[in-house]
Each structure stands twice: as C-alpha cells, then as structure tokens.
Amino acid sequence: MKEKRVSARDILQEWDIKDFRVIDKQAISEITLGASILATGGGGDPEIGLLWTYKVLDEGKEILMVDPMEIPDEIQTASTACLGAALVLTEKPPSGGVLNLAIRRLEQYLGRPIQATIPIECGGVNSPVAYAAAGELGVPVIDVDGMNRAFPELQMTSWVTHGVHSSPTVSVDNRKNITVIDTGDDDVLAETLARRVAMAYGGISWIATYPLTGRQVKEASILNSQSIAWAAGHAVMCARQEHLDPIAELLKSLKKERDVEGFRVFRGKIVDIRREFGSETNKGFTLGQVIMEGIDEYKGQTASLDFQNEWLNLRVDGEVLCLPPDLIAILDSETGEPIRTDIMKYGYRGTIVLIPAHERMRTPKGIEMFGPRHFGYDLDYVPVETLNG
Amino acid sequence: MKEKRVSARDILQEWDIKDFRVIDKQAISEITLGASILATGGGGDPEIGLLWTYKVLDEGKEILMVDPMEIPDEIQTASTACLGAALVLTEKPPSGGVLNLAIRRLEQYLGRPIQATIPIECGGVNSPVAYAAAGELGVPVIDVDGMNRAFPELQMTSWVTHGVHSSPTVSVDNRKNITVIDTGDDDVLAETLARRVAMAYGGISWIATYPLTGRQVKEASILNSQSIAWAAGHAVMCARQEHLDPIAELLKSLKKERDVEGFRVFRGKIVDIRREFGSETNKGFTLGQVIMEGIDEYKGQTASLDFQNEWLNLRVDGEVLCLPPDLIAILDSETGEPIRTDIMKYGYRGTIVLIPAHERMRTPKGIEMFGPRHFGYDLDYVPVETLNG
Predict the structure, then answer these.
(1) Dihedral pair phi/psi, residue A19, rounded to 5°
(2) Strand stretches in chain B, DSSP E
(3) Any idea of the CA torsion for A62, A68, A70, A73, to the nearest 10 degrees?
(4) What are phi and psi of B10, to 5 degrees?
(5) Which candidate from B177, B193, B199 shows the least CB-CB separation from A183?
(6) Hey, which end of chain B has fewer CB within 10 Å, N or C?
(7) Mean pLDDT to the nearest integer, A252-273
C-alpha cells in the first residue's frame, strides 16, 4: 500500500496562500542565531537543531514559512520540542524519526492530521527543530511561537495565558518509548508529568504538544516571532561580516521589528558559578547562580544572575535590573554569540543585554504564571524599561 | 445515537461457554476476604473495592467469572487496578467511571475493544475492582491474576516473567487526567513512569493495563487464582460462623485448592513500627519495618518484617523464615482478618502465616525480578517450605 505523500507546497496551494518564505540553510542559521540570543541563556546547543534541519534540507525536503494571519481558522497545528535539561541533550543527541513518532501518535490520539508546525519557543534546539519537523512531515511552519524567548516550563506560554492548552502532549524518547499526557486545562500538571517522564527517560524527551487550531494560533501566539528572531540573527551575522558592533545591530533590529528599546547594561567576566548538582535527576532543569565581575566602564561592579535553564533575573551591585518575563542575554561582545547556562564557564566574558518581553507575555495572567513571584522572588514585576529608564 | 450495549452473558454465548460462575455479594465478599489474606499485608482497604462492586450489582449489572482454559485465544483482555500508596487511597476514594475512562482510552489506543477483565493481583482493592469493572463494562472476569498475591510494582507479575508486557498502560485520576504509557517490552520503565504519574496525581492512580490476548492469559497467568482466593475466603467465613480456628481452615483450603502446605510460625503483638515518612511523595509506596513481640508459646521471641506496600520478609530472632516471592500474612487469631501495612498500629495482635508462592511466580526469571536480591537483600531465595521444613 502506497502512502499518499503531501508537501508543504500542496498544503499552501490548498489554503490558497501564495505568500510564503522558503527556508534555506542560510535562513535557518540566521533564525537559529537570533532565537539563541532571544533564548536568554537557555534553549540548548544550536548545533543539534541546525544539523537536524540541514539534514532535512539535504534530503531535498522543502521548508516553507507562512504568516499566521494567512492560515485557515480550522486547521490543526501542533508544536514539537525537546523537553528536559539542555545539559543532558549534548550527551543524548536525537535519532531520526523521534519527532515523527511523537507527531504520529498525537495525530492518532486527536484523530486528525497535523497540518502545520508552530515553534514552541526561541531556542537553539527548539526553533530549528520545528522547521526540521515541518520539512520531514511535509507541512508548513507558521511564523509564531509561544514565548518569543525561552522559558523552562511547558505551561509558560502565551498560549496558556490566552486560554489554550498543552494537552494532549505526546512524549517520546530515542528508544521509542511513548507517553501520552492529557490533563485537560491543567497545564501545570501536564508540565509536572512531562518533566517526570523526561527524567524517567534519562533526562531528555521529545514532545508533540499544543495541538492548536489555526484560529487559536492567531489569537494566542506571539505573532511573527520567527521573523523577529530571523531579523535579529541576520543583523548579528551582517555585523560580523562588516566588522560592526553586533550588539548595536541587534538592538537596531529589535527596534525596527518590534519597536522596543533594548538595554546594554553590563560587561564583565564570569567569576563564580554555583550549579545545583543532582538537579538534573531531581528536577529536570539546569539550575544555579552565576556571578560576573565588571570590566571596562563596569569595573568594580558585580552582576549576579539566577538561572533555571534560562537566566531568570539580573542584579548589579544588589540592584534589580531585570525580572521575568523580560529577556536577559549575555553576548560575546565581539561576535554577539550568546553565552548559555548549560555551557558557560569560569572566565567567559560578555555583555549583558536586556530586552522587554513581548506584550502578549506581559498580561496580568502572564505575570502571574511566569513573573517574579512564580520563580520565588518576593518582588512585584516591574518592566525592564522602567528599571533601566 | 443509541450505544449498543453488550452483556457478559452475550459475550459468553458468542464464545459458546456454558460453564461460568455468577458473582453475587456473598461471592465477592468471600473472594475479597481471601484475596486480602493472600495480599501479604498489602492490597488496600477491602471496603473500597467491595462497596464499588456492591454498587455495580445493585444497579442490576451481572458479574460472571469464566475459567481461563475456556476462553478463545484471540480475544482482547486487560487488567484494571489502583496503582499508588494504599495509605492515600483511604483519603481519596475513587469516583464512579474512573476505570471506565481508563478502559475506553486503552481501547482507543489499541484500536480494539476489551472483551474481558483479568484481576492484576490478590488485594482488598484490586481484586473486587476487576469484578466491578467487568460488571460496568458488561464483560466477563477471567479466573486468573498475575501474582496470586499482592506485590508493590507493576512489572512484578507472572505475565512479565512469561514474556508478556504491561504496555500500553492508561493511567487516570478522579479529575479525568489521562496518561498513556507505552514502553514496549520495558516493563520496569513502565512501572517508573506509572509511579511518577500516580505521585503527580496526588498519590493514587487508576490504571487499565496488561492488554493480553486470550492465549497470553492462558500461557502467562496464575490460573484459577480467583478460585483459590474464593475458597480461602469462604473457609475463613465458615470458620467464623462455626467457631472453628480460621487459620486451620485457611491452611486446609490452600492444601485442597493448591496442594501446598502453609505454615503457622508466630503469634505476637506489634511493639514497634518504623515508617519511612515522606515516602508517599518520594517513592509512591507505604514503606517501613515492624517489630512483633511473641506471646503464648512464642513468648520471648521477636519477629521483624520489612514492608513495601506488602510484607517482604520475616525474621524471627534473626533467623530468616520467609523471603519474597513467598507469602506472609499476619492474621487476627480469632477472625482470620488480615492486618495490613497501611492500617496496622502499636498493640495489634496476630498470627503469622507463611504460604508458598505459586510455581509460576518461582521461575528463575521470577526470582530474578521479585526475589530477595531485587528488594535489596543479600540473600539467595530459599523456598518457605525449606526454611520451615
């Protein structure tokens, strides 16, 4: 029996969409760089996601991105992602077909096919993975995500704060173990279960999640977040070639794409890292605190950052300069390459850049679900532009 | 749209089976008492399972039990059970329909209907629950189980040691949360996942598991284990009415049904209980150790028993008298009622009875999977009849 193969192009024709962007290797490398910067220290090793996407392109599969406002309301989409501690991912690279298995089981549970992928977050792994999955499945990827940053927990999305849910979520591993999690509207329980499953798998799982309709994608996503990441990555890559200041180019790009001001607030080197060891197996996150000593005009100042996969907050000489869900990036001052929580080491030097979170992440529900108090800080949320105004 | 209702009687007629036993309230109360005794201190509060089964019978539903050797090879069966810490169960009694939900989702995942239930173990909850589920579903219950005792972990069955598996397992809770676990032939991982899910649900889950064919039921189950429990319960109930020694009647029944000798080895009172507190949330079991001081002819002797939901081993004055998978029951000397690990208290008095495990639990694979070394004892398995010969 021959399986009828569809392609992303067929699907777009069926939806009568003529306007789309073709994602080639240059495009995905720019998107992934931008997404890594917006991942605020998390999101994992871009090499893993990129190599996967390159392989899909090398096999002749096409990856096409469409604007969310173009898609039909009734279509079925889903997100695909890696869930677990990024530190473990480097030890357990994915095998081909693992996301395909998750998607197929999600389709079986839903009783309908997935017609497009939606990236869950901005990250070195989870951004390109959504493109690789789209290419493998022969469906388009939609120019949205659920955060326009990375966040450590499954429910920390604009999707949940706008009333749509992660259930059912299918979690698989390289050995073809499958777990289907269906907790209705209890997204925190879904995260708890998905995290425990990932830990039982050995630290990392691959999930198909957030089965959203086209209408829900439009109403609850961070719209055009892929374009924002792409422009950021493009700006930094151009700066490298033209020997410009990559951080200035990044801030210009964010101003142009999102009309927001970013802040360059510190330059220094890492002098202390306190990792919570055992946390991989206990909680399924990369956890700890890092201390940076200022250099150049910041000499004599001390910055401290907590992290749970991602940077959570920034204090300089005790003064709070950034709180979740606003974004923190530590970037190599020469290349703009982000320093990640899972690979940073003593002596790394970088510039700290702060970026306002997207407005769909700053709703009262958003601040409740992933603001400072959720992460255990006894502080009200104050926007980064107020703290640095 | 009217749903076509089937009944257990229709199914048996379709299979051309004329020989079956009708389970009424008296029958299920005898089966449950016998199962509680064989549960070796575990299996949970019989009231919960019994009340559930009574309710099903009061609704006019029929519960029919068939001999395993009569069923067709190709039919689809499954087990239904409570998985978690029995101590929590008393706090969180089940709501109606919870097992139905698990069975329906298992059928959906398998793509075929469940045509009979198979009790997973002998226990105050899990024995009657298989009957209640059969009555609610309108399918027969088969005269088998996977242990002919209770054991704390999902993979500790004759089914696994005879090459059939618990996957897929569907785990649900009272709030209709659903998790489908499919780990292929990795039954230990299925247990790990099911346990973590139960803990995330709040300590207790209801599962539909071990989707066995009729042929697998015959080849891998403890055959006629329901009849064994029923006869044991009947013997003890008759002894109570006729003022006979319930323990002597129990041992006679086991001799008659299974042709095995049981051993009455100790009488005493509980003088110390060391519970591992916090274990409910950490590991999902009722864990600890109990010390009994001998009375009557055992005066001056000390018995110690470890437990993990069930009694695991017995030492009297340091000498090992019973090792898993052989059975340990502490029974009220007057009524034959079992003293369970989840409800025992300082001062409880009882007689300790030891019973050889079923031969299908004593295979080399069985000893490897649930013998003394599996539970952390640095001891080779020695049959209870050798230790007490």
Answers:
(1) -100, 110
(2) 21-22, 64-66, 77-84, 116-117, 141-142, 144-145, 169-172, 178-182, 204-209, 222-223, 263-275, 287-294, 302-308, 310-316, 319-322, 327-331, 349-355
(3) 110
(4) -60, -45
(5) B177
(6) N
(7) 96
pLDDT at B280 over 60: no
Q: Which residue has the tokens 């379709």?
A: B14
- Give me the interface pTM, i.e. the ipTM: 0.82
Q: What is the pLDDT of residues A291-302, one digit of tens each?
A: 999 999 999 999
CATH entry 3.40.1610.10 includes domain B8-225? yes
Reported as a pLDDT band with limits 50, 70 and 90, residue B260 is: very high
Q: How many Cα atoms sit within 13 Å of B59 on the Cβ side? A: 13
Domain with CATH 2.40.390 in chain B: 260-387
Q: Which regions of chain A carry the CATH code 3.40.1610.10?
A: 8-225
Of A183, A192, A197, the CB nearest to B193: A197
pTM: 0.88
Identify the pLDDT of residue A292.
97
Question: If one looks up domain B260-387 in CATH, what number appears?
Answer: 2.40.390
Query: Residue A179 and residue B176: Cβ atoms within 8 Å?
Result: no
Handedness of CA A11, A16, A21, A22 (dihedral sign): positive
CATH of A261-387, one of 2.40.390, 2.10.260, 3.30.1360, 1.10.1740: 2.40.390
Phi/psi for B308 (5° steps) reads -135, 90
For B183-239, the pLDDT digits (tens) are 999 999 999 999 999 999 988 899 999 999 999 999 999 999 999 999 999 999 999
Please check whether residue A202 touches B, CB under 8 A: no
Q: For the purposes of burial, counting CB atoms within 10 Å of the CB of B306, is it exposed (0-12), middle (13-18) or buried (19 or more)?
A: buried
Calculate how close chain B gets to A56, using CA atoms only, in Å.
28
| pLDDT-derived band at A93, boundaries 50, 70, 90 | low
Band of pLDDT at residue A44, cut at 50, 70 and 90: confident
**Every domain range in chain A assigned CATH 2.40.390:** 261-387
Positive/negative CA dihedral, B14, B19, B24, B28:
negative
